[in-house]
Amino acid sequence: MICNYSRPENFDDMMELNLSISEKLIRKNKFKSGYIVLSLFKNIIEFNEGTKNSHLYYEDEIKFDKKAQLSKMGKVIFEFVNFVNYLKKENKKAKIEKEERERYDIFLERIKNEFDVNYYVIPKEDNLIRAIYQVTANNFHYAFIEILKTCKEYHFTKEELLDAYYEIFKDFAKRIKKEEI
Q: Rounded to two decimals, what is the model's pTM?
């Protein structure tokens, strides 16, 4: 049941929480692998719309609402974790070469380290457009760094991000019958 899950404390915990519901969502819907990337991009764009660097250049003034933006960033992190789990699943397939598996393992350790250890030393910069570019160029580690830089630019602490992620997780978990989780 949903109540048996506790708030994540690190990137591994977020991955485990996502795995607990992603398989159920994939089976319930007509899932395609590209949906994860589209959802990630959609959430990045929605976050961007409420920032000083909004692509909505025709707006006179955009007021930053930290609580609303933190929730939107929670969705970005949620979708990125979904993406990482999808890559992990793909990495386990027999047709993947040993070198590719090793690259994934290095990537996973890097992003865990960026979030769990280095978050407080990452520089501030709103660069979500680069995050999108990095995903399209298969530079997922750099995409994650750009997301984290943006989090730092808007003064989100790691604890706030974990809380926001957890709220999004609980919303997704409600979409599935509780007894299925």
A: 0.89
